[in-house]
């Protein structure tokens, strides 16, 4: 959790679970809808953020992100802004395939060379070039309004936020339906998970 004296500036939410998440398959540019667990996770997020002021919600153009955002909004009238720049890393030929050891190793060869374009997809640097400005824009919106916006996105975007803040793409990764707070503390930007979904728990969680 963020330090007690931290000031939340952006909430980063990973969309709820889809069938491809459940099957441990790459999503990439494929557009599977939320499954029943993903819908439940989105409602849990709506409860989690029900008392939090949110000035806007930014989403990718994928249905799993939009449905998660709409459930979080739950008629509150929060403006929802869609941008393909927030789409997941386009893993091209790997989209929809199982995350087998062989596929993971093959994809990693492209990620290890950020300028190498994934066949049928994009390079890691191309992905970063479109995602990073979106995160910076969300922070600027907080500085302008004093109210945190929310970004509903994908695991690769969450990884990129970790890379941006800490130089570590795994540091703040959460499961589908998880949430992270970007925050300012002593003038420096930090990021920490604030909610990690647990399938076997119905315990209510709150933001502190």
Describe the structure.
The protein is α/β, with parallel strands linked by helices and 208 residues long. The chain has one domain (7-90, 124-195): Phosphoglycerate mutase-like (Rossmann fold, 3-Layer(aba) Sandwich), CATH 3.40.50.1240. It contains 6 helices and 6 strands, in the order E-H-H-E-H-E-H-H-E-H-E-E. It has helices at 19-22, 36-48, 63-73, 101-111, 124-145, 155-166; strands at residues 7-14, 57-59, 80-82, 150-153, 179-185, 188-195. A 6-stranded mixed beta sheet has the order 3-2-4-1-5-6. The longest helix has 22 residues, at 124-145. It is globular and about 45 Å long. Mean pLDDT is 93; it is low at 199-208.
Key terms:
six-stranded mixed sheet; 208 residues; disordered C terminus; alpha/beta; Rossmann fold; single chain
